[in-house]
Structure formats: C-alpha cells, structure tokens
Amino acid sequence: MNDVLDKLKIAYNTWNPSVGNKAIVSENNQKLPDDVLEVIVIPHSHNDPGWKKTYQQYYEDQTRQILSLIVEKLHEYPDMTFIWVESCFLDTWWANQTADTQQKFRSLVKSGRLEITSGMWVAPDEASPHYFALLDQMIEGHYWVKKNLGVVPESSLNFDQFGYSTTMPYLVKKAGLKNVLIKRIHRAVKELFGSENKLNFHWRQLWDPDGKDDIFAHVDTYEWMSISDSCGPNREICNKLDFLNERDLPMADAPKAPAPPGARVNAGSRNMHAFTQMLVEQFRLKNANYKYKVMMLPHGGDFRYDTPFEWDKQYRNLKRFMKYVNDNTKLYNVKMRFGTLKDYFYEIERQNMKYDIKYPTVTGDFFTYTENTEYWTGYFTTRQFDKRLGREVLESLRAAEMFTSLAFTCDIPSDVRKEMIAGLVIARKNLGIFQHHDAITGTSQEHVAKDYEELLTIAFSKTQRSNVTKNSA
Ligand SMILES: [Zn+2]
After folding, report:
1. How many angstroms separate the alpha carbon of residue 123 from the centre of ligand 1?
2. Which CATH number fits the domain that encloses residue 406?
3. How many angstroms separate the CA atoms of 423 and 428, rounded?
4. Residue limits of the Glycoside hydrolase family 38 central domain (predicted)?
5. Helices (DSSP H) in 32-186: which residue ranges?
C-alpha cells in the first residue's frame, strides 16, 4: 500500500459527489469469452448496535422485527435469500423466540438461503480497538453462531467500517474464514485499483513472504452500501431497484424481443425493456471493474426490510424484473438470481478455475478513509474518555478471565462457578458491543455514547466482582 499511496493523484475538484459515483472502468480488463453475466441479488439489512439510537432502542424499534420477518418471509418466499452480520442482535432476539422459530431460523441457515456473514459480535471498527478486543468479540460471536446455528462463517462482510486494518484479515483467516469483502476505502485508491483491475487481490501480511496467511479480498465498487450504489455508477438508475419507493413493475408477460418501432405493444412490457436496458448497462459498467462474469447486487441498507410491506414489495418486483431478464437472456446476455455472499464467492472461484484468472497480492492497510472530500481521521482520537474506559475494561476482563481459570482448578461450589461465568459473559458481550464501528469510534449520538459508557461500567463491575468472588472462593 505504501507504493500505491506514493503514486496517487487526487483530483477532487473535477468531480461533484452529489452527482453519483464515478464509473471506474479498467482498460486492462482481461478479455473473457462473451459469456452470460450472472447477477446475484443479495438482500441484506445493516443493523448498527447503536448509532442514532441505542442498541436496545434499535432492537425494539426495528431489528427485532427484521429478524422475525427473515424467518416468516424466507419461508413464504422459498427462492429468496438473506444475509446477516451482527451476532449480538441474534443473541438478544434468540432468547425471546420459541423453539419452533429457532428451529426455522436454523434450518434457513443450514439450507444456505440465510448466510451468517462475518458472524462476529459486531462489525467492529478496525482503527481504534486493541487487537485482543477484536479477537474477543470475534470469539464471542463465532461461539454463539456455532453453538446455536451449528455453522462456521465463511465470508466476512465489512460494508461500513471507516477504513480497514491489515490485522483483521489475518484474524479472520485464522478463524477459518475464506474471503473478505471491504468497501469504504480512500476514493482515489479505489479508483486506482479499479483502473488497474485490482479490486480483487490476495491480502498478504508484511511478515509473510510465502503467503500462507493470504486471504482473498474483494473491494466492492462505489461508495455506499445502499441500493443507490449497488448496480452501477448512476445512483438515480440504481435507486429504481428500490421498490419500497418505486411503483410496481408491470405484471404483463414480457415480450421475447423489443418491439420494432411503431408496433402496438403492451405499454408495460415496453417499459420493462427500457427499464432493463438501462439497468443492464449499469451492470456492465460495474462488472467491467472485475475479471470475471459475475456481479453481486447488494439489495438493502441501514435497517432495511423491517416491515412486511417492504419485504413483499421488494420481493414481488425483484422477481418480476429477474423473470423478465431471465426470459430474455439471449437479448441482454444477463442471468439473475437471489443468492448470498457465499454464493457470490463460490461463483468467482468457479470462474477462476474455468478461465485461469490470476490476482495481484496487496500488503498493508486501508487507512485513511475518505468520503467525498473529507478525511476520516477525527475518530481516531474523539471521545477519549470512552476509548480509555474501553481499555480499562479490556484489561480488567483479561485479568478476571485468567484468575477465573486458575480459581476453577480449586474446589468451588457450582453456584459460585455459574455466577463467575455469567459475570464474565456479560462483560465480554458489553465490551464486544463497544467495538462496533459507531461505538469506540465516537461517531454515535451523545445519548448513545452515554449508553455505551453504562454498558462498559456494568462490564467493569462484573469483572471486578469476578475477581473478588475468586478471592473469597
Ligand atoms: Zn454501520
């Protein structure tokens, strides 16, 4: 990355961010046979454990419904898929579900239609936390996923972190994950990587010349995780796929080919052709950044899919659109289907084998992040009291864990053991939430920051109590 940063040419003044994303098209794109472009639609919902609302407020107001609707709607729509990231919300929701609902959720995960991506306690910031706190929240999350759902996450989805450290891919590789997806990196780096066809690479550690800890990395094009930035560079066109805010697509059967000029055709069908042409052009611009003929179309955003109305409207219209495209594959040279992040990486791997595609190696991190013309450096040092408190809790937790392990070699009554473990679990979970990318960063609102302080204070008192309990045991 040092070499890359040295040769960056940044020309923000030539570009107006309100217009949308720049089309990054590589001139060096490997020429593949004119195969059909496969577009994988990945419905998702980004749930911050605190930002404008507290963790609990988000859970009560939206996340609880989203998780319940995943179970209800994926059973109603048997070809639909979904992905989920944050284990902390799963834990809170799970405790309030019947055994039947839990089993339904588990079966969706087992079937592959619901993928737990990352599976950590939160989607952590990667600049401010101590590495051990990152590891601890990862263990807590992965342990939860394994224990309750019986799976190990395969891909790491990092849509919203403000830059990416080189330590995190190392930790996730050691945890058994195979791929990482990142998104929010320096705009000029993304444009440069796009122009050089490097938006996929093997992410390597500096001390590892042989690449034994390499992990396959995917940089998602464009700036935001919302539907506006999902299909191609033009936000206005991509937003036409956000059917929550758009009119329903026509139901009429699609014609097999566009009508000749002047022909009398069903107005709805004709609109479908124009609609599809417009979107397929965006798909091709996005896919031109990559070396293969598969494209992910993330479909969601912050706390999306939180009402039955949204699920029904998005599904109904995505199905109509996909059916039209698939009925006319010869015309558009595109196929579409629902899928998960794992499906996307599987297809990339398949095409890598088929076309013998090679990727470059990259070492280093992706700091500092820029959005529009702003450098996101302020959060490294804001809310210093909270950052310090988080370190104090981490230190105390580590000591409590070690003393507890030692104490358990002695004869301790089972009720005392249970109490000690329960205290440590609460401390780990609260400290885990604090690693979230709007918590330790200080980017949440004031009342939310206060809530994090309370969670950390509870965590601290639990670890101290655990130490005292040990001493008296
Ligand atoms: Zn977020």
Report:
1. 8
2. 1.20.1270.50
3. 9
4. 374-456
5. 55-58, 64-76, 87-94, 99-111, 131-149, 167-174
Contact 194, 220 (CB under 8 A): no
At position 426, the amino acid (one-letter code) is I
What does the alpha-carbon distance between residue 173 and residue 154 come to, in Å, rounded to a whole number?
10
Domain boundary, last residue among 375, 402, 431: 375
Q: How far apart are the CA of 265 and the centre of ligand 1, in A? A: 46
Residues in the chain: 473
Q: Residue 387 has which token pair?
A: 């950052």
Q: Please give the structure tokens belonging to residue 10.
A: 């940044």
Asked if residue 45 belongs to a domain, the reply is yes
Q: What is the mean pLDDT of residues 320-327?
A: 95
- Does the pTM exceed 0.85? yes
Tokens of 155: 């891909």
Domain boundary among 335, 353, 375: 375
Q: Which of 103, 108, 45, 36 is nearest to 79 (CA)?
A: 108
CA of 125 to the centre of ligand 1 (A): 10
* 302 carries an active-site annotation: no
Alpha carbon of 334 to ligand 1 centroid (Å): 32
Domain count, the chain: 2
Q: pLDDT category, 13, cuts 50, 70, 90?
A: very low
Taking all residues of the chain, what is their mean pLDDT, rounded to a whole number?
Answer: 91
Residues 206, 166 share a domain: yes
